Fold this protein.
Amino acid sequence: MKVERSGHSIDRRELMRRLGISAAAASLVGWLPSLALAKCAIRKQRVIWMFSPNGVVPPSFWPAETGSEFKLPEILQPLEPFRDRLLILKGVDNRIRGDGDDHMRGMSCLLTAIELFPGNIQGGGNTPAGWPKGHSIDQELRRYLQSSQATQTRFGSLELGVLVGGGADVWSRWVYAGPNQPIAPVSDPRELFRKLYGDRRQVETLRSVLDAVRGEIQQLETKISSADRRQLESHLQAIRETEERLQREITTVQVTPPNIDVDVPMEPDHYPRLSEVQQDLLVSALASDQCRLATLQYDRSVGNMRFKFLGIEQGHHELSHDPDEKAESTEKLIKINRWYAEQFARLAQRLADTPEADGNGTLLDNTTIIWTNELGKGNSHTLNDIPFVMIGGGAGFRMGRSLRFEHLPHNRLWISLAHGLGHSIESFGNPELSQGGRVEELFA
Amino acid sequence: MALIKRVLTWSLFVGFVSVLSLIPECFVSAQEPSPMQERGQAIWNAQCVSCHGERGEGVPGKYEHRLAGPASLEELASLIEQTMPEDEPEKCVGDDARAVAEFLRAGILEERAPPVQIRRELLHLTNDQYHRAVADVGERFLGKAQIGAERGLKARYFDGRNFDEKKLAAEQVDPRIDFDWQAGGPIGEKTGAEEYCVEWNGSIYIEETGDYEWIVRSPNGYRLYVNRQDQPVLDSWVATRDEPEKSVRQRLVGGRWYPIRLQALKVKDPTFSIQWLWRRPRRQAELIPTSSLAPEFARPVLLVQTSFPADDHSLGYARGSFFSTEWEEATTQAAWEIADLVVGRLQKFAGVPREAADFPAKCQEFCQRFAEAAFRRPLTDAERQRYVTQWFGSGPVEESVRVSLLSTLKSPWFLYLGLEGGKPADQELAEQIALAVADTSGQDLIRESLREGDFTSRERQVALARELLDSPAGRAKWRAFFVAWIGLDEIEDLRKDKAIYGQFDAGLVDDLQESLLRFVSDVWESPESDYRRLLLSNELWVTPAMRELYAKSLTDTEQSGDPPASEIPHAKDFIKVSLPQEERAGLLTHPLLLSQLAYFRTTSPIHRGVFVTRKILGLTLKPPPVAVEPISEEEANELTTRERVELQTRPDNCMSCHRVINPFGFALERYDAIGRVRGEDRGKPVDAKVRIELSEQQSIELTGARALAEHLVAQRGTARHFVQSVLHHAVRQPAMGYTPTFLDELTDFFINHDYNMRELVIEIAVRTAELSQQAEPSAKTTGEQ
């Protein structure tokens, strides 16, 4: 059945079985980080992809210089503290053509690097399209990491959103488990919290309930015939067995849920706070090794978010279509994109502030965060010069540089990323555009 | 010669008798053993102990199972006479057999019968009962909408793509979803051909509990909602050209209407077409028939998709007597599922928005009402504390509600059947009746009824039972009874050799199932509800395809009337025909049953015989004592099926059972492997004449199905077995768990009321409720001190 999945998979159950925990208990047990600590000899490698919509303002975005000496333009200035861990890539294009308009392909071919199916959804131009024909790079890497005990985690990957909203379509989804299989991001911090830490509370809850049920059954013993007590005893025995199993799990689970107030209204005025909470939950998930890959999607393609808290009344998409000459709009777009850069910087900072569980450095040392966009520029809808800005040390790239390429298909960027994580694929997405494989310059 | 042999045997053991009678522990009953029992014991020790052990405990290598069972004296004597001793059954017949039977009944069997078989046990809800109970609780809060008599779905056609009310182009009732509009619009000039969207709303009727598959065939965008209105079961709003058909499975509880909505969109597509099909349990996919659809919205039903371990079937019927760890865990999973569903819409259940100041208090109130609905009685103060109040405190309200619901749904007061306490006696009586008749809590009816007065009078009880029997839940429960009794739930992929039976395909099998169910329904719902008609009727529901095969002899003038007015959902044109008496006689000659009880190419008199023996007469049959090699093809080719089976089962140790089984099967030999009438088998005329042994001295001769059916109907054993099966399905307890004579009393009632099945169910419901009220279950046990 081809509908959305939340990303939970059979893999986890398989994992539980291998570790000797029964499938039934698996649903009640939170992940066991104590086991994760045990496999910590090799360094963990992580990747986070962050998305913001509607393109950027190129003159205020791209450094004029290449190499390790470069000035950060206005939009990227918030990234200054991370200069020597920064990698800026200009000249990487989304070369996927075919069905769907620029926004649709910009969004849904960004991580998948493959064409969309012909379909019934019509964008602003071109031909109508369906979903992409393949899976996204994060899911490719997820499969790779989950296939080995050394790199397995409870979830493998997490798909997060910040006010993504609306229904499922090629503008609101960028992560795909396979052809026609979009994965919905979780935008609600409450839901995310429950997903990460709910199980643990479930265990506590269940113990109290079982206790109560047992009390109830014991009370019945006096009212029931002696022969029927045998049935009660069976029931009590079954309960006892469940409780013993829960007891074993509780003593090994060491994850303390973080103290984050997740009760934030899901509204545009609370966009900044939602961004913070989602990021903090993400960092806590990485710190407790519940996953090593994540996507963080702000808004959606063609998103018309209102940045009232920045003093901007018009919606983002509206603004992005104003001509370059309209300075007023350009200024606002710069403000908006700079705000996104600040979010990017904040995430980097949280990772830098969080030590690894085994004491070897910080999370940022082992994590590469990638900030990207659906378009190169909003009003022209160009799919050239797609923004790619990276921070951190997770992928084995040489950081602290501004690089320039000549119409490099972004397929090869994803191939390089995979190689950085030890996954030596020769092609990703459209095979023709993959020709040439990994880009050595990223590593050298 | 046999007589002398018997005299010798007898005199040889006279001595033993006098010795053995002095051993007191042979007898459990305090009274003096009768001469018959003594005689029986003597024979037992001489002829039986070597295989069965002194106390019937079994002997490894011989008969390994402990002797046990609730057989009546007659049944036991008959069984012994016909089958024991195994190598020479004629060695113990007539009075000897009876003597042994009496000895066993008074001694070993009474003492040894495991308690489970002759007393009523504490049970939990069977899986089906669990799902119904949850749906019933949900109904208290989600409500119950009225579905009228109109059929089809309410269709609303809009211009544009946004279901904009201002662009509503037309509204009508469509009989089913099967449209192919090519490039033009659905209602001609009423909508623009370029872009339009359609929404079909209404409800679908589900007859039987099980897994249903929804299939939509369309190249356009669509979304299908069944039961849940917040989440589509099929979301293909973004259509992709390469997938013209999508499907999904969903478990649904029978006897209910479920709300549905199907939305479809045409934007930029060159064509528009859509079909909505379903696959019911054991059937082929087909377009959803109009008779299953209604234009009004039903209320959503509270349902879980959690799988439960299979019910205990050790006594031959489903009962919740096994309290296993898997079952315990399944109750937890299901409870979580329900809690999540409820909390997901908590505002609706609490009745106030989340921001309201009294939201927590309203949630607590809701939890209390939920527990009261689940336990079907008010909570005591202590219980309110345990199930509601203690869980509310510092944490988020949603979590408190979750825990409260969890504790309620795992409580024995919800999970166990028939726990007494906390309710006025007559309400309890009413509930037991509701459970027996329809597996439902029956709360609505009971509350309404209670307003008119209490349930102490029998008339009120009977009236309640009758009303419940006619309700959708009642219909669903007894439909399930027939499905299980006839074995329809075991039809898997019924296939025959296409070279011989070309027209027998999956579609025909569907028709046959429907035909059989209609027949049974017909008889069940008729005013007389006469069981005998099930075996004797010469009527058959046929489709054109079936007519070809099974009713060829009929001319047009012999057909009868219209389909009955009841809610039988099927769109094909079934008509009822009356066949010549010699051709059809009820169930035993229904093509589906005959096909099911046959091989790929040939008939199987043994399977047919076993069906009659077990399902109609209710006799116990052990499995074959030795593995049997079938006769080779070449040898067999010359023989008719009957001849071959006779040859195969000739050895004595086969005959002990086959002397009973075979005649029934042979009498049905006039029907081939797909149930068609035939005169010949392998070029020789079919011999359907059989001799049936009634006892040592008596036997009768009969020929063919109708004579067989008439014979069966005349046996008290037939009625008794049917009554027992109905009792088991109604209350899931053994008859002997009530009173030792209960089954016989009910059988008398059944026979005296002209075998009226519905009256039987009502009588069983009322009497078992009465008996449960009278004393504690333990007082009803026999054989336990």
Chain B touches chain A through 58 residues (CB under 8 Å).
